[in-house]
Amino acid sequence: MGTEGAAGAPAARRPWPGRSRRAAGAGAGSDAVVIGAGVNGLVAANLLADAGWDVVVCEAQAEPGGACRSSRLTAPGIGSDAGIGSGAGPSPGTDLSFTTDLFSAFHPFAAASPVLRGLALGEHGLRWRHAPTVLAHPLPDGRCAQLSTDLEETCASLADFAPADADAWQEQVALWRQVRAPLLDALLATPFPPVRAGARLLRALGAADALRFARFGVLPVRRFAAEEFAGDGAGLLLAGCALHTDLAPEAAGSALIGWLLAMLGQDVGFPVPEGGAGNLTAALVRRLRARGGELRTGTPVAAVTVRAGRADGVRLADGSALPARHAVIADVDAVSLYRRLVAPEHLPPRLLADLDRFHWDSATFKVNWALAGPIPWSDPRVARAGTVHLGGTMDDLTVLASELARDLVPAQPFVVLGQMTTADPSRSPAGTESAWAYFHLPQRPRGHAGTAGARLRATAAVTGRPDGHGRPDEHDVAVLLERLERRIEAYAPGFTALVLGRDVQSPARLESMDRVLHGGALGGGTAALHQQLVFRPVPGLGRPETPVPGLYLASMSAHPGGGVHGGPGAMAARVALGAAGPTGAARRRALAATHRMLYSTPARSSMPAGPAEPG
After folding, report:
1. Distances (CA, A) of 152 to 147, 149, 165, 174, 232
2. Which stretches make up the FAD dependent oxidoreductase domain (predicted)?
């Protein structure tokens, strides 16, 4: 059954006064210009509109949403030769339409985020839908770890691996319930440092347990699983969730990332917006327009304009200017903002040197399928899960992570698969399935693992790199597609016979559809500890403010990073409002002094920059 994303009654909001103020002649331009209509940009725009600001959102693509969009995959003219019409599926010759999510699909962060819940998007048409179970991780030996919002069902699954793990999992759920509210507030809703939310978290845990929770926060998931569980099942659920990012089982911090996603799944599930991920975006757009905000699609921004040392608007690709009285909010990746949109004379050289070390997360290869029927899993338990992890044992996950670290395409990739009709029956006709799957590969792969050093065919002419390393070309795409479908066939014999149509999203195509997804990177930069908190996107304050007053970074490249939760957008909006408030002048002076301290000295020659990559 579906549930609405907002819990409880939203806080009272005063009527939006911006339209009458603008009509009264408050001056040219708007209070704020938002670059990019992804979830973070739309969240920022909504919060600024709630505060009475005139807001204009500029989106380069023809539709809003960024990495939260849906599309239709049509299988025209199919009939009996495709195997349809003999059972519960559609009649022969029927044209079928399947809804597929182009990027993000399952949204545990969105359902739990204090930012998005506070926007009461259920009032604007958002409805959540759930699969019977949240997650399944089948193994070749017939065992299967399952995650369900029914705690007893999850525990029973883990007890199949080790009886003691049912109680061990319940202990983790009890810890989650203890820290849930202050932790989510600290991570997603409060600009860094989260002093009040941090104090609430400390009170919830107590000093002794807070110290142990801090240790847990930097543990690798392999070590955490070995400490807390006797069997393999729980560790596979946690490590698989961590691998939604680019964190290997041995990576510091992977335990917390995996635990957070798994606990969200246990708590709110991995819900999907009814009718497609684009309906989450549509609810944000409807809410913004109801408050007088303006959205302009097909309107690429060419530059952030700076006058007297302060961002004062943007220049559009057609040459026209769009002034902003108070703020420019950038829902774009950090490299694009600082290398393309802001002229270098307005930025400290030290920041640009730090940006040379910016670490992107892994590239992604994704395929969407229109299927003639449900996926024929060998284990029927897998058929009930919205999300499926195909990755084998913990050791198998370590091997593939090692291959990625060596810039090799994994021989046996870790596959994340979504059964969308299982989660939301509106996604495709009765008896069929809309599905997708993806796996990670290096940003600059130099070959395929397990093939005696076979190299990708991409050339320097394609990639601009003299070493011949590069993103996959058409030949490689065919190889990757075959590898992905063979991986699924191993767990679901007969899968490929059900394929009516497929839509392949290579890394290059993902980037072309949303420039923030550099090389198919889904997280706006690595999730590793060296690029989190005060190190995101570069060493600094871990906050949305940039060295250019009035310009705020609001994308996944900013703290708290990737995921559909609205955190970076909310934080950017809140600090922009604070800067325009009664204490704004003092804040700006303190911030300028801090930025001078951080960026005024030249870069040390003993800390060479990493290989630069295009933004």
Report:
1. 10, 9, 12, 14, 18
2. 31-330
C-alpha distances out from residue 507 to 71, 355, 438, 517, Å: 18, 22, 11, 9
Query: Within a 13 Å sphere around the CA of 100, how many CA atoms are in the beta-carbon half?
Result: 28
| CA 147 to the chain's CA centroid | 21
* Buried-state track 49-81, b at ≥16 Cβ within 10 A, e below 16: bbbbbbbbbbbbbebbbbbbbbbebebeebeee
Question: Two tokens at 593?
Answer: 């002094």
Q: Which residues pair with 606 in a beta bridge?
A: none
Task: Note whether 35 and 562 are within 8 A (CB).
Answer: no
Strand partners, 438: 366, 416
Type of residue numbered 252: A
For 18-67+278-357+524-599, which CATH class?
A: alpha beta
Alpha carbon separation from 481 to 134, 437, 477, 486 (Å, rounded): 26, 10, 6, 8
Sign of CA dihedral 388, 393, 398, 402: negative
- Which of 341, 306, 192, 310 is closest to 592 using CA atoms? 310
Q: Which residues contact 152 (CB under 8 A, 6 or more apart)?
A: none
Q: Residue 11 burial (CB < 10 Å; 0-12/13-18/19+)?
A: exposed
- Contact call for residues 335 and 38 (beta carbons, < 8 A): no
Strand duo 408-409 + 447-448: pairing: parallel
- Taking alpha carbons only, the member of 200, 201, 4, 9 closest to residue 110 is 4
Cite the DSSP H helix spans in 304-379: 334-336, 349-355
Count Cβ atoms within 10 A of the Cβ of residue 455 and give its class: 0-12 exposed, 13-18 middle, 19 or more buried: middle
- Per-residue model confidence as pLDDT tens digits over 8-40: 333 334 444 444 344 334 446 899 999 999 999
Where does residue 481 rank: exposed (0-12), middle (13-18), buried (19+ CB within 10 A)? middle
Contact, 197 vs 127, CB < 8 A?
no
Higher pLDDT, 412 or 469: 412
Read off the pTM. 0.90
Give mean pLDDT, residues 325-351: 97
Structure tokens at 490: 């191993």
Asked whether the predicted pLDDT for residue 609 surpasses 70, the reply is: no
Indicate the domain borders of the chain: 18-67+278-357+524-599, 73-102+362-520, 151-267
Mean pLDDT for 167-174 is: 99
DSSP class of 373? S
Question: Which residues, 6 or more positions from 446, have their beta carbon under 8 angstroms from its beta carbon?
Answer: 407, 408, 455, 456, 467, 469
